[in-house]
Here is the input.
Amino acid sequence: MQDCMRIISWNVNGIRACQRGGFLDWFTKQDADIVCIQETKAHVDQLEAELAEPLGYNAIWHSAKKRGYSGVATFSKRKPKHVELGLGVKSFDDEGRVLLTEFRGFVLINAYFPNSQRDHARLPYKLRFLRTLAKTMNELQASGKRVVVCGDYNIAHREVDLANPKNNQKNAGFLPQERAWMDKMTADGWIDAFRAKCDEPGHYTWWSYRPGVRERNIGWRLDTFLIDPALRRRLADVVHWTEIHGSDHCPVELRLR
Here is the structure.
């Protein structure tokens, strides 16, 4: 692990609440090269300085215009060569959903994918987001960049990626249109890094807050790293830190040689 670059992604479901649960202590102990967080639900002016810019890290925040909603942030030991806040589409960028940072060897996209909602009201919005993100990914790749996309996808791709697939066929996050996007991306060569290393059931990253659900591991794998096929040889491992609490999601770590 010492020879690997370590990139951690975590939907913190509110950075201020997660901080009360020990986020900074966890962050410091990890000593990762890059940490990406989603659903920050905060603007920088609402945070203490040590959280807004942890010691030893460059901190880039892309918050939603609406306070207390959505938002992403990327912390990196090395200063990025280039940064882009958003996808250049106002309806997505106003919600602080995507942050691009370029480092030596790859572009990292930190994304908080929309939730289609229980009544599927935001499915059209999500599908537009998926098309726009895929276009960005493919354009970066075509320009010769290597690309890593991490975050909360709000999509369980296959039946193996959630505990009760038969009962969730019509539920947001497992809708045919959402899963078809993942089908297309992987068919085009993008690699689901975790599934490249493990095809077993029972590995999840999100659990309902209902009592006993997480303890019984009735979950969904919603947090994913998609990597450029050119990075396959560098893929060392992907780890789900299921023992880490503080959110309804757990951190996911990508290790690149």
